[in-house]
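WARN no homologs supplied; continuing
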Amino acid sequence: MSTDGGGVASHSRGNRMASKLLIIDDEQEWLDILSLLFTRKGYEVQTAEGGVEGLKAIGETMFDLVICDLAMPDLSGIDLLKQVRSCDKTLPFIIMTGVGSIETAVEAVQFGAFHYITKPFKSQDLEILAQRAIEHRQLHRQLESVALHAEPTDISTMVLGSHRGIQDILAKIEKISDSSVPVLIQGETGTGKSLLARLIHEMSGRKGKPFMTIDCGALPENLLESELFGHVKGAFTGALFARRGLMEEGQEGTVFLDEIGELTPCMQVKLLRSIQEREIKPVGSNKNIAIDVRFITATNRDLAREVEQGTFREDLFYRLAVIPLHLPPLRERADDIILFVGHFVQKFNQRYNKKITEVSPAAMQLLMSQPWKGNIRELENVIERAVLLADEDVISPDLLGFSLNAQPRRADASDMGTGTISLQQAVSEAEKRAIQRALAITQGNRTKAATLLGIGRRTLYDKLEEYKI
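OK structure emitted
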């Protein structure tokens, strides 16, 4: 193993609690080398000489990651993985293997290994892989927690993906998780702003406290003021009882103001005062009430431009946008479409008791070529309709509701050439592109790629040979 430190990614946890690693190998030399490597990176490392000793350690200690050799005389890495998976579905496993055992290592991925790495390897490669595995499990746990409190919508699929913009957002969220600074989420309609807001809350120190949401564009000014700040009895016609506002109900929690760009100038002033003074005054009351809430706001407008135009207060904008986040539109993260499609098919299979097992390559190519003005929300609606209308176990292009005569994106047309192409050529090209995208997303893992495509592994192998991929 190369141990040159140049370019090795540093452990992203900083001063937070060190991640616990278990390294299992029947060769003491490897245990010593890897223990030294990860200890220097700030990990808490425990070693086990052999599979049996490793299994015992896993039963006694909670680890964040296991790095295990594949070939061990007492208990192989894959057999150890199978035993662990019977009681723990999420503990990340990285399998180390020799060149001659790669096929077996790939099989280990089928049983739930996060990844495998072939000896000899560079220290940088293993350290980055370990970092990703630990982050994957942490995010999985956080999103599971979110799902317990959220509406029946899948935050993990809506927010996560392979796009760099999403990963940058998650990195920022983790850095500010221990603070209460205001966050402004900007993005087009349907990109998942409200789901991201809830994720921020669940990853913060206010997790478990109230998460209060209001759509600032859904209510007239007088009702919005009452909803936010509350009112006393008799404050206005119909106010038969005193009522607490969202900001008081959300004490110690998070207040999420959606469509913040819809606020009237008068409400902008009142909100600014509440943020600055950390207190509210219910409608009709002379008494101020101290508040302890974190503000998260969202809009599909360009607030910076509206500040320049004078339609949104500059001082309020800078109060709200201490941490600005931008959710990229779906058309800029096309490589994530396969992930979203696979998830939505499973979701609606369960909801409507359907058994869709495949999205045809031609249908996937059509999905890839759409502008998706409604973003992820629009994609979800399209897949829901297709699942409902499907008579068989395959989603075909005609179920998507798009014009089959629509022109593909320019890159697709140019790749195919300017001459006439047959339907078979078009289908073959669509299949090839779908397979290439699936392999890119799964980092070359053929088993996972087949699952994303909704086809059998043997079928995928045949297609790889046919298209010389």
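Residues 123-149 form the longest helix (27 residues).
OK
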